[in-house]
Each structure stands twice: as structure tokens, then as C-alpha cells.
Design brief:
heterodimer; A: 506 residues; mainly alpha; ABC transporter involved in vitamin B12 uptake, BtuC; 2 domains; two-stranded antiparallel sheet; two-stranded parallel ribbon; 4 strands; disordered N terminus; B: 238 residues; Rossmann fold; 4-stranded antiparallel beta sheet; 10 helices; globular
Chain lengths: 506, 238
């Protein structure tokens, strides 16, 4: 293997040196964090060493570094993917095996078990090495050609995407509309789809503030909370229906957006981010402490579920004077009716958000947002009022957050400040950033990746967060500006599709 | 009639007095240039006219109206447009979108004739209509900055160093276009420049600024012939 490497740009001894260097760094970093554990023994707290974990850390680092070296040596994309998958599986496998042995490993009585795990480790490493070697020699033979092809292929994919954005969007919409027909009986699938759709809507709403107007908002969840509590409180105290409360929740959230907007108008970048972060926390802390009004940490429970546009009810036992949904359409009662109705409701709400955003982008106000993101001074010199422009972005973004919040409240039937922590803001922001700032389809993809995948792989328990983190790192490595990170002009004159790609700024 | 009249303007950046009592005027239909060394306060004066930063003393009259306390975007809506220092076009937008941005406060009914006018002046922009502005050359970006300012239908056009960082041939082209705009469109132009030779040759009148004060003024030809100006700004060849 080293002989093969020697013939390329990096020679074998350099590779070994590099790997050794990273092994030492991994050792230094992991020895205190992973290597020592305090154990509660009858004699009191004692230190136990866990060299196995240190070894795993070192081995994973070395393998990872080796992967990066291969990447540097211009391996084809396909093989990279294979390598990384196999490596991840191998490391994961080792991890699990070692964890199972953990307790016994601490007291080195069961030597054969330890021996067994060492053997399995060596096997795993050998496996990885074989795969790497195969990949490397394959690359030697046809590497150069494949690299060229893969570059062309990615360019082709990009071109196809960019010249067919509308079609792709339509296919997506159709798919989401027929989703309940395909998975109508699967309660968890509909639930998950609804959850993803909530985040898509929140992502689209935040995209107005962050992606279009370029105002980094770390407290977006505040507007989500305002919307949710608006609906919950209005419905409980004044007995208003969901359909009346929905616009009201939007209006309340929008006015909170303006309240936040005023003091932060002069701020930009990091400073703005910190103030919005603070705003998000203020809302949450107020919700916790204003016990008489919001119910404090207990939250608000048994929030009214939405009716079928005020015509019919979804409950099994219909209250006096109301018609049940099943009777209205001559169907038998099914608890899925309400879930599917909720799914379609959030789908329509999200599509409204998307439609409004796409329209606004073509109007002067949307153009002004984008211009403001690029250059505030130039905007002012063109006669754009930056105050109004920023406030409108905050207000409209917040309004959609409010709608989503009202929907969240009616879907859950119970809300508490727990649901509106900073982590939520961070997840929504991550969706916008990973999707590619300002890209509407990017938000959908990122929401599926960020929300859908971790939920789908819930069986993997704590490892799913590990994989999730690795996934985000991978996205940032390969697509540092987000999954779909190009902005096409909203208007193109006398142009064929091919020319569209010209003049992309990286 | 004087279109822009600056009376005893002082501008501060914190405690630093950048403009120390400036008096000057720009008459309708003129090209007036302001020359001076780096840090003399040229850009500060131009930006003070636009309201950012605001003058702490003195008055600025635009067509008889005091604009020295107005915010920048309102001043710009009165009919003053600028091509700012460093051009400040929107790099990720196309040329067409940049020009649309220029016309954002204007009545859309003028848009088509205005954009034709800009393309007549700068045929290069028409060739690049769908290109991202940030990928164009410096000269093209400068043309776009001027074109964008013209889309705002100004009566007074402020230009801040349009020759900055451009090849001599392009500089010549830009200055010819500025003259054309002035001659054919009867546009009043206030030009801030370091390239004193070209600017003074073009301008009807000129002012020389040193350390926040106006030290000399006169017609372009007078200033070109002035030995002080020659020694400070022209020798060494342009």
C-alpha cells in the first residue's frame, strides 16, 4: 500500500508520519476524556481506566485521517462514499462491541473476552484496510477518467436541477399531497410527515429573515411560542375557534417581530444574533414565570383540537349539536381522520408560506430584502428605507412562525415552555443554513435530513445523534454553502437554460 | 441657479473633525469636481450631502430645501443619486436586477425608457444583462454603478471616484460617458476624484480640498494651469 502511495503525490513515509501525528493528538485528547472513569464502589469512588475507548478513538482518528488522505489523492466520489460508509460501519461495530464488554473490561478478569474483542478489532481493521487497498488500486487504474466523469456528472445534476426547479418543486408538492394516500394507515409515518412539515414551514419562515434579508435570528422560536400561546390562551379564555385564532396568532407574532425589530435595527451580524438569542430566552422565561397567565412550567393542557372548518368534529364522542366528520362524509370513525386532516392543514400552511415568499421575492420589497443583505449603504443610497425593510422582514417571518405555533398547539393539545427552547431555534436555523440560504427546496431537503432521519432511525438510540453529527459535518465539508446554494436571478431575459449557470459566485 | 449649496458644513467622526467649514455650490447643468489627496475629506463631504454622516454644523440646500437633517433614503428620493465609493453594486444579483434596484423608488412607467437610456450609454451592460454583477470586471461594475444611479432618475448625480482601480483606457471611456450624460441629458454632476487631470479637464468648475478645508476653487482650466495644483496633484504624470 505504501509502495502504491509512493508513486503518487504523497510518499509512504509522509503518510505514516501524518497518521502517527494524528494518533498522538487523538491519544492526548482522549486520554483524559475517555480514558478515566470514576466508578462507585463499596469502598467509595475509584478511578477505572478504559483504554479500550482510547484505543477506539485513536483507531477511528487514524482511519478517518486515512480516508481524508485518500480523498486528497483524488479518489472517485463513488469510492469515497463506499469507503466512508464501510469505515463508519466498522468503527460503529467496534464501538458497540467494546461497549458491550465495557464492564468486564474494567476488571481484567475475563481475559478471553478482552482477547476476543481485540481479535474482532483486528479483524475490523483488516477489513477496512482491504477495502481501502482495493479502492486505491481500482483508483490507480481508472481514477483519472472517473474523476473527470464525476465532475461532469455533478455539473449535469446541477444544471438539471437549476433548469427544472419548478418541475422538481411541483413533483415535491404532488408527492406530499398523495403521501397520506400511500401511508394513510401508518400512524407514525403521518405523524413524522406532519412534524417534518412543521419544520419545513418554520424553515421557510426563517428563510425570509435569514436567507433573504440576511438578518441572523437566533430567537426565531420566540415567535413560534407566541403563536402557540396566542392560540392556546385565546381558545381557553375566550373560547375562540382555531380558524379565528390562526390569523390572530399570526398577527400577534408579527407584532412581536416588530417589537423585536425596533431595538435591533442598528445591529448587524454577531450583535444582532446575540440580541435575538436574548429575545428568544426572554419570551421563554416570561412563559415560565408568569404563572397566572401562562400556567408557568405546567404549560397549558387540553387545548381545543381543530374542527373540520367549523362544520364537523373529529372526536369519537361528538359534543351536543355538532356533527362528526365520519357522519358528514358517510365514513366510519377512524382516529386517522384527524391526523390526516392535520397533515393537510400544515401542508397547506407551509405551501402558503412558500408561495408568499416566492411572490415577495419578485416584488420590490423582496428585492429590497435581498439588496439589504448584500449592501445596506448601497440600499440607502438608492432611497430604500432600511428601517421599514428590516421590520417588514422580521414581521413577515414572525407571522409565519406564529401560524406554525398555532398549528403546533392545536396538534399537540398541550404546550409548555419546554417546547420552545434555544435548541429549537438552533435546529430551525440549521435547516435554513444546511439547505442553502435563501433556497426554498433546500429547506425541504434539510428538514427531511435534520428532522426526518433522526426520527426514522430512533432504534439506533444514542448512536443516531453521532451519525447525525457526522452527517452535518459531511454536508459542511462537501457543500459548505448548504445543500442547494445557488441563487438564480428571479428574472432572466432572452436566455437559454444552459447560460443560466454562467457567472456563479462561489 | 445653484442646485446644491453647501454652507459652512462641519462633520465629525467622533472627536475628529473631518470637514472644517466647507462652502461650495453646484449649479444646474454643471460638472463640478472636488479633488484632493487621500484622507482630505472628499468622500466625507459627498456622504454628508447624502445624510450619512450628518453635518453637525452648517446647512446643505438642495434646490433651496435644507436637507442637512434628513435621513439618507429621503435625500436620495428627492433626486440625488450617487455612485458610491467602491461602487457597491449587488454582487450576487444580475445586471438587470441591479438596474431594477436603482429604479426601486421610481414609477414603473419610466422603467423601460430609462433602461434603454442606460444601455445606450453603456452598451456593455446590455451584453451582460443576465450576468451576476460580482463576476464582471471593475470597469463594467463602475458602469453598472453609474447606470444604477441613473435609473433613480436623479437631477443631481454624485460620483465618488469612478476611476478607482481601473485601466487608463477604461477611465477615459468612463469620463467620456460622464461628459455625455452631462451634455445630452443635462445632468448636473458632482464628481469626487483623485485623478485630478481627467477630472479637471472634464469639469466646468473645480474645488481643491486639503485636510477638510477647501483651499482653491475656480474653473477646470484655471485649476489645471494653477502651479500649486500642478505641483500637488498633476506632476508625476497621469
Amino acid at each position: 500500500m505504501s509502495a502504491a502511495l509512493a508513486s503518487s503525490r504523497t510518499n509512504g513515509s509522509e503518510v505514516v508520519k501524518e497518521l502517527a501525528f494524528f494518533a498522538v493528538i487523538a491519544l492526548l485528547m482522549s486520554v483524559m476524556l475517555l480514558g478515566v472513569e470514576t466508578v462507585d464502589r463499596p469502598t467509595g469512588l475509584e478511578l477505572a481506566v478504559r483504554w479500550d475507548l482510547v484505543l477506539i478513538a485513536i483507531v477511528s482518528t487514524v482511519i478517518g485521517r486515512l480516508g481524508l488522505i485518500f480523498r486528497r489523492e483524488s479518489i472517485s466520489r463513488l469510492w469515497q462514499a463506499v469507503l466512508i460508509t464501510v469505515t463508519a460501519v466498522a468503527v460503529f461495530e467496534m464501538f458497540v462491541r467494546f461497549r458491550e464488554l465495557d464492564d468486564r473490561w474494567v476488571s481484567p478478569v475475563v481475559l478471553d473476552m478482552a482477547f476476543g474483542s481485540v481479535v474482532s478489532t483486528i479483524l475490523a481493521i483488516a477489513f477496512v484496510v482491504i477495502v481501502f487497498a482495493t479502492a486505491y488500486f481500482t483508483m490507480k487504474v481508472q481514477g483519472a477518467v472517473e474523476v473527470d466523469q464525476s465532475k461532469k456528472l455533478s455539473a449535469k445534476i446541477q444544471l438539471t436541477y437549476r433548469s427544472n426547479t419548478k418541475k422538481i418543486g411541483l413533483i415535491g408538492i404532488v408527492f406530499f399531497f398523495i403521501f397520506p394516500l400511500l401511508f394513510g394507515d401508518d400512524r407514525s409515518a403521518i405523524d413524522l410527515a406532519t412534524l417534518v412539515m412543521i419544520y419545513i414551514m418554520l424553515g421557510w419562515g426563517l428563510n425570509i429573515v435569514v436567507g433573504l434579508a440576511g438578518l441572523l435570528d437566533l430567537g426565531y422560536v420566540a415567535f413560534y411560542a407566541v403563536g402557540a400561546y396566542s392560540y392556546a390562551l385565546l381558545s381557553q379564555n375566550f373560547d375562540l375557534s382555531f380558524w379565528l385564532c390562526l390569523p390572530l396568532a399570526g398577527i400577534f407574532a408579527a407584532s412581536f417581530g416588530i417589537i423585536l425589530g425596533f431595538p435591533v435595527l442598528r445591529l448587524r451580524g454577531d450583535y444582532l444574533a446575540i440580541v435575538t438569542l436574548g429575545f428568544g430566552e426572554i419570551i421563554r422565561v416570561v412563559l415560565i414565570n408568569w404563572y397566572d397567565f401562562t400556567g408557568g412550567p405546567d404549560g397549558i393542557s387540553s387545548i381545543e383540537r381543530p374542527s373540520f372548518f367549523g362544520l364537523a368534529d373529529f372526536s369519537r364522542r361528538v359534543p351536543e349539536g355538532a356533527i362528526s366528520f365520519g357522519d358528514l362524509f358517510g365514513l366510519d370513525y377512524s382516529s386517522m381522520h384527524r391526523l390526516i386532516f392535520l397533515y393537510y392543514l400544515i401542508l397547506v400552511l407551509a405551501l402558503v408560506t412558500n408561495f408568499v415568499t416566492l411572490r415577495l421575492r419578485k416584488l420590490p420589497i423582496g428585492r429590497a430584502w435581498e439588496a439589504l443583505r448584500e449592501d445596506e449603504i448601497a440600499c440607502r443610497s438608492l432611497g430604500i428605507n432600511p428601517t421599514n425593510t428590516k421590520l417588514s422582514a422580521f414581521a413577515i417571518g414572525a407571522m409565519f412562525g406564529g401560524f406554525a405555533g398555532a398549528f403546533f398547539a392545536t396538534r399537540q393539545g398541550f404546550i409548555s415552555p419546554e417546547s420552545f427552547t434555544f435548541l429549537e431555534s438552533a435546529v430551525i436555523l440549521a435547516i435554513v443554513v444546511l439547505g442553502g440560504m435563501g433556497s426554498q427546496i433546500g429547506v425541504v431537503l434539510a428538514a427531511i435530513v435534520m428532522i426526518g432521519f433522526p426520527e426514522m432511525f430512533r432504534e439506533l438510540a444514542e448512536y443516531r445523534m453521532l451519525i447525525f453529527g457526522a452527517g452535518i459535518v459531511a454536508i459542511m465539508l462537501w457543500r459548505p454553502r448548504g445543500l442547494l446554494s445557488f441563487r438564480d436571478p428571479t428574472i432572466l431575459l432572452n436566455m437559454s437554460q444552459k447560460e443560466k449557470v454562467a457567472g456563479e459566485i462561489k | 441657479m445653484s442646485m446644491l449649496k453647501i454652507e459652512g458644513v462641519h462633520t465629525f467622526y467622533g472627536n475628529i473633525e473631518a470637514l472644517k467649514g466647507i462652502d461650495m455650490e453646484v449649479n444646474e447643468g454643471e460638472i463640478v469636481t472636488l479633488i484632493g489627496a487621500n484622507g482630505a475629506g472628499k468622500t466625507t463631504l459627498l456622504m454628508t450631502c447624502c445624510g450619512s454622516p450628518q453635518a453637525s454644523k452648517g446647512r446643505i440646500l438642495f434646490e433651496g430645501q435644507d436637507i442637512s437633517r434628513m435621513p439618507m433614503h429621503e435625500i436620495c428620493q428627492l433626486g440625488i443619486q450617487q455612485s458610491p465609493e467602491g461602487r457597491r453594486i449587488f454582487p450576487r444579483m444580475s445586471v438587470y436586477e441591479n438596474l431594477q434596484m436603482g429604479a426601486i423608488t421610481q414609477d414603473p412607467k419610466h422603467f423601460n425608457s430609462d433602461i434603454e437610456m442606460v444601455f445606450d450609454l453603456f452598451p456593455r451592460l446590455k451584453e451582460r444583462i443576465n450576468q451576476r454583477a460580482g463576476t464582471m470586471s471593475g470597469g463594467e461594475q463602475q458602469m453598472l454603478a453609474i447606470g444604477r444611479a441613473l435609473m433613480g432618475r436623479p437631477r443631481l448625480l454624485l460620483l465618488d471616484e469612478p476611476s478607482l482601480g481601473l485601466a487608463p483606457l477604461i477611465v477615459k471611456q468612463i469620463f467620456e460617458t460622464i461628459e455625455k450624460i452631462n451634455r445630452e441629458k443635462k445632468m448636473t454632476v458632482f464628481l469626487v476624484e483623485q485623478n485630478a487631470f481627467h477630472a479637471l479637464k472634464l469639469a466646468h468648475r473645480g474645488y481643491v480640498m486639503v485636510n477638510g478645508n477647501i483651499t482653491l476653487s475656480g474653473t477646470g482650466a484655471e485649476l489645471l494651469a494653477n502651479p500649486e495644483v500642478r505641483a500637488a496633484y498633476l506632476e508625476g504624470g497621469h
